[in-house]
Design brief:
Blueprint (H helix, E strand, L loop, with lengths): L1 E6 L3 E9 L5 E6 L5 E6 L16 E8 L7 E4 L6 E5 L2 E6 L2 E3 L10
Antiparallel strand pairs: 1-4, 1-6, 2-3, 2-5, 7-8, 8-9
Length: 110
């Protein structure tokens, strides 16, 4: 799994945290600290290198600024669109059995 994020400015450090359904921190990884889009590979292991069970996990990306300016961090997913459906006359993109509003799309790749 790839965790994608974007930083509004260069950070002193970036920490990518993975939490399980109960809110417990199960893994913390360093990430690239440059301005713009970056990604971190997540191998599905916890901090003890044991495989995590199937479930729902929450990802958090924290950027520590080099100075006093706050850094805006945006996380995003990369999905393959399987189709388009309409709800109340408005289009929704279908990806991995999820309905996605086109206004939530950051970038389209081929």
């Amino acid at each position: 799994t790839t965790i994608n994020y974007s930083l509004s400015a260069r950070a002193r450090s970036v920490s990518v945290k993975v939490y399980d359904e109960s809110g417990a921190l199960v893994r913390e990884m360093p990430g690239p600290n440059e301005t713009g889009m970056s990604s971190v590979a997540f191998d599905g292991l916890d901090s003890g290198d044991d495989p995590l069970p199937p479930g729902t996990y929450r990802i958090e990306v924290e950027a520590t600024p080099e100075g006093s300016e706050a850094i805006d961090v945006q996380t995003f997913s990369t999905l393959r669109v399987d189709g388009v459906t309409y709800e109340s006359g408005l289009p929704k993109l279908m990806a991995n059995e999820r309905r996605i509003d086109p206004s939530d799309v950051f970038r389209v790749l081929e």
